[in-house]
Amino acid sequence: MIILSGLAIFLLAVCCSKENNEEPKLTPKNITLSAAAPIAIQSSNEFGIELFTRVTESENKNLMLSPLSASTALTMLLNGCDGDTYSQLQGTLKYPAEMSISEINEAYKSLVGQLLTVDPRVQLALANAIFYLDGFDVKPPFLATMSDDYKATVKALDFAAPTALTTINKWASDNTKGKIPEVLSEIPGDEVMFIMNALYFNGDWSCQFDKSMTQELPFLPDGGSATDVPTMKGKVGAKFACGNGFRAIEMPYGQTNFTMVVIVPNETLSAFYPSFTYQVWDKLCSDLDELHEFDKITVIMPKFKFSYEKYLNNQLMSMGMIDAFSSSDADLSGISDSEIWVDYVKQNTFVEVDEEGTEAAAVTTIAVGVTSPGPFNIYKSFIFAIRERTTNTLLFIGQVVNPEQD
Questions:
Q1: Is residue 275 helix, strand or coil?
Q2: How far apart, in Å, are the Cα atoms of 276 and each of 51, 240, 284, 352?
Q3: Could you tell me which of 115, 66, 110, 122 has the C-alpha nearest to residue 256?
Q4: How far apart are CA 55 and CA 59, in angstroms?
Q5: CB 295 within 8 A of CB 251
Q6: Is the C or the N end of the chain the one with fewer CB within 10 Å?
Q7: What is the pLDDT of residue 52?
Q8: CA-CA distance, 127 to 345, in Å (whole number)?
Q9: Res. 379 pLDDT band, cuts 50 70 90
Q10: How many whole angstroms separate alpha carbon 238 and alpha carbon 110?
Q11: Per-residue DSSP letter, 293
Q12: CB atoms closer than 10 angstroms to residue 372
């Protein structure tokens, strides 16, 4: 629960820190989209809200997901799907059935190219990558689409070599400014490809909190006792709205293209989530958009910083992406003629919110495995046994902790 002090709205002009004795621009720059882009954005948002609420069903701790990162990586995968695998993933991502993959790809290019440059006062970076097993037969059209439409780094690696793990983790770290230094701790022998997206955001509040006002104040977590936490306080530029069972504020970054929306349920988070749907989110955004000015509102808000990791297989399967995770049913024939399937979809995130602004990062990793195993890399302690097969007589069994140990 984030505490809002009275939520008194003062109809005053927003007063923010000046740069070079000039009033900062607090007008968002318009983004021109392709015809299909608004549909793709709506689909991504709807997918993201549903994925978030499904994750919260089993998590009672700090967490953060990136709908844009997840939908981008899964859309890259969609380009390699066919048959039921394609239609299931398309439905999971909430893309209309009549929307072609070329329209989806074009919508992505139309949006991302402008998002990255729309506000010079906000750092936003988005990167894609395809790392595949050196020697594995990947169809050239798939790689061409990844390179051309998604500007992806495409690289063949020897997955059995330690340098492969280093290369992939370094890519994730470099594209999140070091906030997510590791996404893989190992590369199992049946993995042949990693489809990845990295997203980084760093924005200063349009009107920053005064650090001298930060103090220890009580915070009441769901199901717990109140405890004192570092809490910011100030009259900052914000919009205020109410909904069925919640209150919300919106606080802008930079020239106000990007904002943070904070939703505080009247009851507990767990009681609120069953009613929190994409329609509720969309209505809240519409209500906020109808308020044209960011008025001065007294906001009391805790500082926070955390990292989060989540495997999303169960949630995505419950949303309809089923066959892709099956080694016998997956149709990823757009990627390769080999019998491949999705081993897992995982997201790593980082967020830090303080008086100056917000830094956030996400990496989505899709691991693609092959039914016929690739190199079996025995790179850590193991058990070994010697048996006679026709009688299954066990002759020897042991373990190797360190091959160099006598």
A1: helix
A2: 12, 18, 11, 24
A3: 122
A4: 6
A5: no
A6: C
A7: 92
A8: 17
A9: low
A10: 29
A11: S
A12: 9
- CB distance 192 to 340 below 8 Å: yes
Could you report the per-residue pLDDT of 125-165, keeping only the tens digit for each?
Answer: 999 999 999 999 999 999 999 999 999 999 999 998 999 99
Amino acid letter, residue 11 = L
Q: Of 79, 186, 191, which Cα lies nearest the Cα of 128? A: 79
Nearest to 119 by CA among 252, 19, 254, 237: 254
Pair 37, 110: CB distance under 8 Å:
yes
Long-range contacts of 155-160 (CB under 8 A, 24+ apart): 155/129, 155/130, 155/131, 156/131, 156/132, 157/131, 157/132, 157/133, 158/133, 158/134, 159/133, 159/134, 159/187, 159/191, 159/192, 159/374, 159/375, 159/377, 160/189, 160/375, 160/377
Check pLDDT > 90 for residue 372. no
* 137 residue type, one letter: D
Taking the C-alpha atoms of residue 151 and residue 388, their distance in angstroms, rounded to an integer, is 54
| Domains of the chain listed by start with CATH number | 9-26+215-302 (2.30.39.10), 37-200+311-350 (3.30.497.10)
Q: Other C-beta atoms within 10 Å of 30: how many?
A: 9
Of residues 26 and 320, which shows the higher confidence score?
320
State the amino acid at position 143 in one-letter form.
L
Residue 7 is predicted with a pLDDT of 31
Contact yes or no for 71/48 (Cβ under 8 A): yes
Largest Cα span, the chain: 87
3 state SS of 52: helix
Residue 184: the pLDDT is 97
Q: What is the pTM of this model?
A: 0.89
Other C-beta atoms closer than 10 Å to the C-beta of 308 total: 17
Paired tokens of 172: 């994730």
What interhelical angle do 37-56 and 67-78 show, nearest 10?
110
Q: Give the gyration radius of the chain's Cα atoms.
A: 24
Could you tell me if 274 and 339 are in contact, meaning their C-beta atoms sit under 8 angstroms apart?
no
Contacts of 289 (CB under 8 A, 6+ apart): none
What are the backbone angles phi and psi of residue 261, rounded to the nearest 5°? Answer: -105, 125
Q: Tokens at residue 111, please?
A: 């949006």
Quick: pLDDT tens for 256-314. Answer: 988 989 998 888 888 889 999 999 999 999 999 999 888 888 898 899 898 999 999 99
- Bridge-based pairing of strands 246-253 and 258-265 is antiparallel
Token output for 243: 């909904």
